[in-house]
Design goal:
heterodimer; A: 110 residues; six-stranded mixed β-sheet; 0% helix; 45% strand; B: 120 residues; mainly beta; 57% strand; globular
Chain lengths: 110, 120
């Protein structure tokens, strides 16, 4: 199965909002609500930020939100802060008990 | 506090078997709600889910379609850990390998990662 499609980069100024897209197919993103988003700093393991499209784990700021429309999921970071500068990856369940990740988006806070 | 501690050699020769172990503290490999996963990351392939093991009255495994013929993920209840074996490795298998706890296809706890280099 092919990786989910994410833009390689995104950017915004402190305080602004930025949205990162994650496009798949009806076999993954469009077919199931098991879309997750991860934040990763260089040299560190990914951290779960959003699961099941729009749910936030305990401890994740409510500045992070997720949504889905058709075959595209989105992660929105509101009120950008310097610490949000990181790589972001989406993932989705795909039929036959497998999982696929997106290629990743580097978020730059200007 | 739940933690995952990875161990294994950092260098594997081509055609040999890559073996990694993930020791669990603060949770159980036999948990009826968690799954235990291996994920790898490389510059060329990005993040790639490899496979998982989990217990729901009996043991189950799922593997990435692309690796199904080469991969085994096994639980070890006596040591409360799980392992990854990847056979017939090539330089393409060079990556940082992570173990992770999962639930409904999300991964809420990750190991620190182990760089595995495949080279003679």
């Amino acid at each position: 199965q092919s990786a989910l499609t994410q833009p390689p980069s995104a950017s915004g100024s402190p305080g602004q909002s930025v949205t990162i897209s994650c496009t798949g197919t009806s076999s993954d993103v469009g077919g199931y609500n098991y879309v997750s988003w991860y934040q990763q700093y260089p040299g560190k393991a990914p951290k779960l930020m959003i699961y099941e499209v729009s749910k936030r784990p305990s401890g994740v700021p409510d500045r992070f939100s997720g949504s889905k429309s058709g075959n595209t999921a989105s992660l929105t970071v509101s009120g950008l802060q310097a610490e949000d500068e990181a790589d972001y990856y989406c993932s989705s369940y795909i039929n036959t008990n497998n999982l696929v990740f997106g290629g990743g988006t580097t978020l730059t806070v200007l | 506090q739940v933690q995952l501690q990875q161990s294994g050699p950092g260098l594997v020769k081509p055609s040999q078997t890559l073996s990694l172990t993930c020791a669990i503290s603060g949770d159980s490999v036999s948990s009826n709600s968690a799954t235990w996963n291996w994920i790898r990351q490389s510059p060329s392939r990005g993040l790639e889910w490899l496979g998982r093991t989990y217990y729901r009255s009996k043991w189950y495994n799922d593997y990435a379609v692309s690796l199904k013929s080469r991969i085994t993920v096994n639980p070890d209840t006596s040591e409360n850990q799980f392992s990854l074996q990847l056979n017939s490795v090539t330089p393409e298998d060079t990556a940082v390998y992570y173990c992770a706890r999962g639930s409904y296809w999300r991964f809420d706890l990750w190991g620190r990662g182990t760089l595995i280099t495949v080279s003679s």
